[in-house]
From TrEMBL:
<feature type="active site" description="Nucleophile">
    <location>
        <position position="116"/>
    </location>
</feature>
<comment type="similarity">
    <text>Belongs to the ACC deaminase/D-cysteine desulfhydrase family.</text>
</comment>
<keyword id="KW-0663">Pyridoxal phosphate</keyword>
<dbReference type="InterPro" id="IPR027278">
    <property type="entry name" value="ACCD_DCysDesulf"/>
</dbReference>
<protein>
    <recommendedName>
        <fullName>Tryptophan synthase beta chain-like PALP domain-containing protein</fullName>
    </recommendedName>
</protein>
<feature type="modified residue" description="N6-(pyridoxal phosphate)lysine">
    <location>
        <position position="89"/>
    </location>
</feature>
<dbReference type="InterPro" id="IPR036052">
    <property type="entry name" value="TrpB-like_PALP_sf"/>
</dbReference>
<dbReference type="GO" id="GO:0016829">
    <property type="term" value="F:lyase activity"/>
</dbReference>
Length: 361
């Protein structure tokens, strides 16, 4: 018998907790594509496998021939959640942004790297929800704004911070928020608000026109962020493809680890036989934040065969691990969470332009 899905603190069931939460996303739904792993026919070195998107190619005979009986895994297409701010970033804001607005937030301050997907997501979704976004970006303004940097500039109020200033993030964020609030406004950390209660039932807006500035730390890792990811787990567990008694092995790329923790916590609290593997890129200085030879070509290879665009640092690593797992583990269904990040390719194309202009096989 599966354990009763409940939170240890308070004894409130996860289903009740999630149903009582106000959400930013109108639905937790996400497309799920099935990928078949085939032997490669390419003479290009490094192309050990070929791929077929069975979900989109079934009408053209996909799933027949070589694809029949081949190893396969599933991709949760969270990269399609929003045209500009997608992936795990809106999942982490899903419960957080409504809570901050309920607490009367007029402005939100956050920070990130020059091509931060988190910063862009905060800018876009705050603008959609009528909250003024203020973004502190590390480094200098680009000569040609592109990718997530351009989105942050279009939707948010961007200030660039030197690397020495950015190294003291908390002080930087608080000082900037204080300037925005002015003499009559208030400044609060989002984490402090979250700590008061998981669910807010009343509007605490001042109503006197003063600014209430909320600070969201880099990456938005918080309890509310976990709730947004747990909502995704609940949705996936309701799909026929991933029946609640199925063994599922989820693979996700990991930066702060918030998404992976949310997935694992959701599985445990919902009593699912699901395992979560987080693929982190912080093992060596040579690897972290860098594109290795052949990775951009591999992303192009996958995009042309499946219609799924990956970035060469994060989602490509999760894809490669999912391929390895589905070839070795026949008992569990392997599921990769696509965490977005594809707009970051615009920035990478400036840094690694020769690799993007070289033709493919």
């Amino acid at each position: 018998m599966r354990p009763t899905p409940a939170l240890a603190a308070g004894g409130r069931t996860v289903a009740n907790l999630l149903s009582a939460t106000e959400w930013m996303l109108p639905s937790p739904a996400s497309q799920v594509h099935t990928i078949s792993v085939l032997p490669s026919q390419s003479p290009t070195p490094g192309h050990e496998f070929a791929f077929s998107n069975l979900t989109t190619s079934l009408g053209n005979g996909g799933g027949k021939g070589l694809a029949a009986g081949s190893p396969r895994f599933h991709v949760v297409r969270d990269d399609l959640l929003h045209p500009l701010a997608n992936g795990n970033k809106p999942r982490k804001l899903d419960a957080l942004l409504p809570l901050l607005r309920c607490r009367g937030a007029t402005d939100i301050v956050t920070c990130g790297g020059c091509q931060s997907a988190h910063a862009a997501a905060v800018a876009v979704h705050c603008a959609e929800w009528g909250i003024r976004p203020h973004i502190l970006l590390r480094g200098e303004q680009l000569d040609i704004p592109t990718g997530y940097n351009l989105i942050s500039l279009m939707f948010g109020n961007v200030t660039y911070a030197s690397r020495s200033v950015y190294a003291q993030r908390d002080e930087m964020l608080y000082e900037h928020a204080t300037k925005i609030a002015g003499s009559n406004g208030t400044v609060m950390w989002a984490d402090d608000i979250i700590g008061e209660d998981l669910v807010v039932d009343e509007d605490t807006t001042d109503g006197n026109g003063s600014r209430r500035v909320m600070i969201v730390k880099e990456g938005a890792g918080s309890v509310q962020a976990l709730l947004g990811v747990m909502r995704l787990v609940e949705y996936l567990s309701g799909l026929t493809l991933f029946g609640q008694d199925e063994k599922v092995h989820i693979v996700v790329d990991s930066g702060t680890g918030t998404t992976a923790v949310g997935l694992a916590l959701g599985a445990v609290c919902l009593g699912l036989q699901w395992r979560v593997t987080a693929v982190m890129l912080a093992d060596t200085l040579e690897r972290f934040g860098k594109v290795l030879d052949g990775e951009i070509m591999m992303c192009r290879h996958i995009a042309q065969q499946t219609g799924i665009l990956l970035d060469p640092m994060y989602t490509l690593s999760a894809w490669e691990h999912a391929v390895d797992l589905c070839r070795r583990d026949s008992e569990a269904k392997v599921v990769m969470i696509h965490t977005g990040g594809t707009l970051g390719l615009f920035g990478l194309a400036q840094r690694y332009s020769p690799q993007f202009t070289t033709g493919s096989d």
